[in-house]
Specification:
With 128 residues, the protein is of the alpha+beta class. It is 50% helix and 27% strand. The protein has two domains: 2-93, no CATH class; 95-128. A five-stranded antiparallel sheet has the order 4-3-2-1-5. The relative contact order is 0.12.
Length: 128
Amino acid sequence: MTTTRQAISIGPVQGSLLRLSERHEVAIYLREGAGWVADFHDSRATLHSVSEWHGSGSGRMLVHAQRRDAVESISPLPDEVVQRIESLHRRMEEPIVAPFVCRNLAALGACLCRWSAAVTARGIRAVG
């Protein structure tokens, strides 16, 4: 029984949630062996690798906030936050080619077909 309970509590995401204010939380965690930061500010959520996040200056901002005792609390990641994090990762892993791009590619293909037919009908031949 103990091993099952431990396996459930460990899960795929391990980390801490830092509450900077009522409207700003930062989750620093490991997922599949890599370090990540999820920054939740108001209704926005952004996902960064630890190095990217630290390099942007946000890491230094957090260090300064800790020095000023501006961090309201530090706690293990609640299940709700883990679900939000997993949702961010799923969105990040979705292919970049969106339906909009696919529709535009189809329209471009149709234009090329019409152009090709028009060129052929006029008897213009490519030089080459």
